[in-house]
């Protein structure tokens, strides 16, 4: 292990492991530490959505997850006696049009094994206990259970260390938000009586929500709200009998759980920092934002934080881009964090309405909305996070306009050329123009001459994380050159 890594990562959950894998893939020396003795054995975050899987696909290792999970193809929302809405995931605007249901314990295993195969081991029972940003590097203190301390000098520090982040506390950042005034139950176990088994089942009962998420085989996650909570109040973990009574009361007949793997009571927090970075220190994942589990977007949003930061750090460390590129990380990801927080909050609010009149209004609105295919499609795309873009980013060129296809700031739906994913900008368009850009900016650009006639009439620069930075006509070549030159300064 290098005592002077380019990047020190605190926290080896899904976000820290994603960041570590991406930086190592780019040849960046790292260290990754975690105070836990081992990775989680709990199911926790359960779904990898289409956008996250696209990023892993561009990086070359999406298949590692697919063999460890199962595909979910839709969601049903019902009252227990009537199905009010059916949302299909098959219509998601993605080359990976489904939700991959996979226990967080498996997600972490895949990522940690891949990292180990690259020669990097997670340093466990090692806690980050302090740091100082010196302006040209970060000096961090690492402590082991024995009390042994080590001082590490790194170029950059990234806090992927969860909701109680030591890095966030060290920065003095406020974690703004609130804890919902309600108790919730979680059960992970083997269930009979649910069909279809490749769908999420959500029951909006008069007395509260009951939601089922498939994990693998006949194993499911169950979530239900249990009633109001006071500040600081702790609810005992539910028993298997209590879960079965809840399911019998709120669900459709015949649903029974046996052999529980995990039973827990929890509270929902909705909190976020205003900025994801300060100087040479960054935050990603739960260290920066936590939200309701509705929509299953927390881990996915954190992993996408990691992909966003990884390519920017890599280009800056390699000297291919100027340090100002890193300023765009917080700008882009705080906007996404705000959106996810808002959407998850609205979904939770709608699902937990207790006033019967408001429940009837909600159900009527849902039935009407779900009768329109375009609305079902929009819901699926929002859940899958394929509708996220960066319209207001400093990396989005707004000066050029094209009639067809993704515009500046929008996601590029196709697989990036081999070698471009996470590493370089893809210049897509007429062969002579994109070849010239790659020749002038060899460390920044990979040329992809357009084979599709629809793409030959435009000139695009697609970022390493699959978002369009520049989109114009071939006549806008000089503007594309200026865009790339600005990145290098």
How is this fold's topology laid out?
Blueprint: E1 7-10, H1 14-25, E2 30-34, E3 47-48, H2 50-59, H3 63-66, E4 70-72, E5 74-78, E6 83-88, E7 99-101, H4 104-117, E8 123-124, E9 127-133, E10 138-143, E11 149-154, E12 156-159, H5 166-171, E13 176-179, E14 182-192, E15 199-205, E16 208-216, E17 219-228, H6 240-250, E18 256-266, E19 269-272, E20 277-278, E21 281-283, E22 289-290, H7 298-317, H8 327-351, H9 356-370, H10 373-383, E23 425-429, H11 431-440, E24 445-449, H12 453-456, E25 459-462, E26 468-472, H13 477-487
Strand order, biggest sheet?
Answer: 6-5-15-16-17-14-18
As a percent range, the share of strand residues is 25-35%
- CATH fold-level name of the largest domain: FAD/NAD(P)-binding domain
- Give the overall shape, derived from the CA principal axes: globular
Indicate the structural class: alpha+beta
Unreliable sequence segments: none
Number of helices: 13
Beta strands, count: 26
Can you give the mean pLDDT?
Answer: 94
Separation of termini? Answer: 32 Å
The CATH superfamily of the largest domain bears the name: FAD/NAD(P)-binding domain
CATH class of the largest domain: Alpha Beta
CATH architecture of the largest domain: 3-Layer(bba) Sandwich
The biggest beta sheet reads:
7 strands, mixed
Approximate helicity band: 25-40%
Q: Tell me the number of structural domains.
A: 3
Rg calculated over all Cα atoms: 23 Å
């Amino acid at each position: 292990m290098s005592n002077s890594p380019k990047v020190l990562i605190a926290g080896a959950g899904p976000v820290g492991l994603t960041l570590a894998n991406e930086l190592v893939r780019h040849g960046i020396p790292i260290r990754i530490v975690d105070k836990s003795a081992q990775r989680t054995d709990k199911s926790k975050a359960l779904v990898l959505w289409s956008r996250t899987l696209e990023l892993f696909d561009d990086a070359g290792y999406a298949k590692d997850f697919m063999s460890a999970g199962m595909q979910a193809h839709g969601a049903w929302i019902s009252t227990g006696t009537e199905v009010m809405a059916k949302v299909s995931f098959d219509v998601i605007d993605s080359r990976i049009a489904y939700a991959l249901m996979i226990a967080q314990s498996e997600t972490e295993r895949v990522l940690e094994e891949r990292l180990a195969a690259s020669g990097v081991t997670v340093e466990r029972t090692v806690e980050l206990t302090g740091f100082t940003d010196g302006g040209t590097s970060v000096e961090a203190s690492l402590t082991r259970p024995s009390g042994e301390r080590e001082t590490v000098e790194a170029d950059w520090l990234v806090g992927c260390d969860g909701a109680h982040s030591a890095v966030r506390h060290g920065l003095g950042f406020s974690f703004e938000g609130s804890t919902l005034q309600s108790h919730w139950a979680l059960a992970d176990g083997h269930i009979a009586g649910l069909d279809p088994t490749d769908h999420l089942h959500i029951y909006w009962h008069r007395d509260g929500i009951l939601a089922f998420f498939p994990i693998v085989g006949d194993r499911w996650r169950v979530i239900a709200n249990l009633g109001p909570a006071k500040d600081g109040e702790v609810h005992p973990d539910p028993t298997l009998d209590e879960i079965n009574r809840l399911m019998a009361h709120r669900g459709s007949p015949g649903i029974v759980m046996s052999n529980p793997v995990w039973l827990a009571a929890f509270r929902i927090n909705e909190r976020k920092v205003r900025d994801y970075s300060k100087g040479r220190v960054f935050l990603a994942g739960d260290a920066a934002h936590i939200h309701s589990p509705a929509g299953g977007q927390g881990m996915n949003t954190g992993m996408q934080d990691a992909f966003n930061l990884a390519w920017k750090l890599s280009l800056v460390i390699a000297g291919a881009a100027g340090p100002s590129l890193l300023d765009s990380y917080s700008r882009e990801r705080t906007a996404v964090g705000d959106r996810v927080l808002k959407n998850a909050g609205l979904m939770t609010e709608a699902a937990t309405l207790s006033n019967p009149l408001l429940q009837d209004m909600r159900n009527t609105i849902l039935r009407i909305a779900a009768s329109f295919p375009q609305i079902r499609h929009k819901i699926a795309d929002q859940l899958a996070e394929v509708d996220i873009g960066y319209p207001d980013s400093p990396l989005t060129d707004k000066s050029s306009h094209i009639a067809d296809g993704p515009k500046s700031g929008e996601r590029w739906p196709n697989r990036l050329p081999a070698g471009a994913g996470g590493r370089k900008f893809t210049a897509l368009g007429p062969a002579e123009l994109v070849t010239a850009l790659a020749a002038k900016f060899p460390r920044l650009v990979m040329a992809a001459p357009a084979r599709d006639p629809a793409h030959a009439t435009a000139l695009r620069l697609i970022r390493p994380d699959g978002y369009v930075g520049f989109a114009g006509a071939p006549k806008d070549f000089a503007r594309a050159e200026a865009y790339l030159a600005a990145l290098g300064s």
